[in-house]
Amino acid sequence: MSSRPFVVCHMVSSVDGKIDGEWFSSPEIREPLAESNVIRADYACKATLYGATTMAQTYAEGWVSELPVTDRHYSREDYIASSDVDSYFVAIDPKGEIAYDGKYIEKRGRAKVHVIEVLLESVSDDYIAYLRGKDISYIFAGRDQLDPMLVMHKLNELLHIDRLMICGGGIVDYTFLQAGLIDELSLVIVPLTDGGVNVATVFDQSPFVSVGAPIAFKLLEAKTLPGDGVWLRYHPKNII
Which of 24, 99, 112, 136 is 20 to 30 A (C-alpha) from 198? Predict the structure, then answer.
């Protein structure tokens, strides 16, 4: 199970490491954010992976409010829908909670992408029926706890994804970092803070994963950006 994509975690943060908050609506973010979008495109990744909250609140249709009731038991086998595009949004959605219009997302000025849901085998049959009713692809990556390496292996083997970008939130970022599956951290720091508390940061420890040793990084590049931003590239030292 060694085959996996090259994985870059690309994030935009305030100077105090926050990835959300009032600072994100400030005009001072415009220039460094534009540069971040160029950097993001230059990595030429075939897929972008998000946590459930980021996907639901930013690209999908929020949280599913009512599921179809089914008496059918679905085998926990991966399902890959037919597609007329070769790029993907991957949603880490262990419990099966995200709502969608269909198997494609085309929003926020971005090209159309094919949705891949990552589920646990403990997800309800009702949610699987919901996904099948919309012809949305899904893969299973663990029975009761997410197996990050299995996620990467299946994305590579089933969809031939050789370059993947992780873009938050903080818990999903740290889940894959802690598993040794991030090859590069690309961090754009903007000259803003709002002093927010209880806000997601670039890396947040999951309450469902045991705390491990601190993870060290090797600096690859530091570059100033227009608008007083900074771009840092790091190589995590725990890569497997």
Answer: 99
Tokens representing residue 124 in the block: 């309800």
Where do the DSSP E strands lie in the chain?
A: 6-13, 47-51, 88-92, 104-105, 113-119, 137-140, 163-166, 184-189, 217-225, 229-236
Per-residue pLDDT tens over the stretch 167-185: 999 999 999 999 999 999 9
Tokens of 114: 């094919």
Measured distance CA(182)–CA(175) in Å, rounded? 10
pLDDT tens for residues 41-88?
999 999 999 999 999 999 999 999 989 899 999 999 999 999 999 999
State the distance between the two ends of the chain, measured CA to CA, in whole angstroms.
Answer: 12
